[in-house]
């Protein structure tokens, strides 16, 4: 009944890691979900293995957010000297809205705290403590936008400083964000959280609603800048796609009321 976080081999897929563990423990029964096991599993005579991916939570947030620090240094701190890891389980609370699932999409976030930071003398350490919190649909929306804005900034910066060998990652990210927004991504957030009914029923969420609106406007600014950078480096054969992105972006801006 112990829990560990283990660092896999470089470029090792989760499936390969699972198979490696099952080879080491040939009598173990593999559990196919990441939910907390019930008491019957803990009390059982049989051996069970539950394996799932976790995300590192870096300690040096200021290093990651500071401008001017090279990306390779940031990359190091994202996965080294890590004490805390997390995994999220999305679920719907109450009645699921078929038209707009963002309204009822909650996230159960589990944080695992280790006895010692990874990587260390060993590739795995025991979990000392676990904390579980629930994130509301609005908090979830805020985090999704914050992460996407940060990803866009990083890709645009890499493109500007010629750290990117080809611009496909930036193209795909711009396309993904703009296409989702035009096909209802950002509009769904507006329908879910900016309507009078939600604001009246959740007076405590005033600051969070303001924050979500700020992040939407911030994303529009980042996209505008990203498209300008993209235009300078886009190859001739991808010009039609770039033009489509620019056209869609104007539709997105008008939907935001900019």
From TrEMBL:
Q: Is this entry keyworded Coiled coil?
A: yes
Q: Which family does it belong to?
A: Belongs to the DOCK family.
Q: Which InterPro entries match?
A: DOCK, DOCK_C_lobe_C, DOCKER_dom, DOCKER_Lobe_B, DOCKER_Lobe_C
Keyword annotations of the record: Coiled coil
Where are the annotated coiled coils located? 135-162
Write out the GO cellular component annotations.
cytoplasm; plasma membrane
Keyword Coiled coil found: yes
Q: What is the lineage of its organism?
A: Eukaryota, Metazoa, Chordata, Craniata, Vertebrata
What name does this protein carry?
Answer: DOCK4 protein
Looking at the record, the residues that make up the DOCKER domain are 1-258
- Organism per entry: Pachyramphus minor
């Amino acid at each position: 009944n112990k829990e560990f976080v283990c660092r896999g081999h470089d470029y090792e897929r989760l499936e390969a890691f699972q198979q490696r563990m099952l080879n080491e423990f040939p009598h173990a029964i593999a559990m196919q979900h990441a939910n907390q096991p019930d008491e019957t599993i803990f009390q059982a005579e049989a051996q069970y293995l539950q394996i799932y991916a976790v995300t590192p939570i870096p300690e040096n947030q200021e290093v990651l957010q500071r401008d001017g620090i090279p990306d390779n240094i940031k990359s190091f701190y994202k996965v080294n000297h890590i004490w805390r890891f997390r995994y999220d389980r999305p679920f719907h609370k109450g009645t699921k809205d078929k038209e707009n699932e963002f309204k009822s999409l909650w996230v159960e976030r589990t944080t695992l705290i280790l006895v010692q930071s990874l990587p260390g003398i060993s590739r795995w350490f025991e979990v000392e403590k676990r904390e579980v919190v629930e994130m509301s649909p609005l908090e979830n929306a805020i985090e999704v936008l914050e992460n996407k804005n940060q990803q866009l900034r990083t890709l645009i910066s890499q493109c500007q400083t010629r750290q990117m060998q080809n611009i496909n990652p930036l193209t795909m990210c711009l396309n993904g964000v703009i296409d989702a927004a035009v096909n209802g991504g950002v509009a769904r957030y507006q329908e879910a959280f900016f309507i009078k009914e939600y604001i009246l029923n959740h007076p405590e969420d005033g600051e969070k609603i303001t924050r979500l609106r700020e992040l939407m406007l911030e994303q529009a600014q980042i996209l505008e800048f990203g498209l300008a950078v993209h235009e300078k480096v886009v190859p001739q054969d991808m010009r039609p796609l770039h033009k489509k992105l620019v056209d869609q972006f104007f539709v997105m801006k008008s939907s935001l009321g900019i």
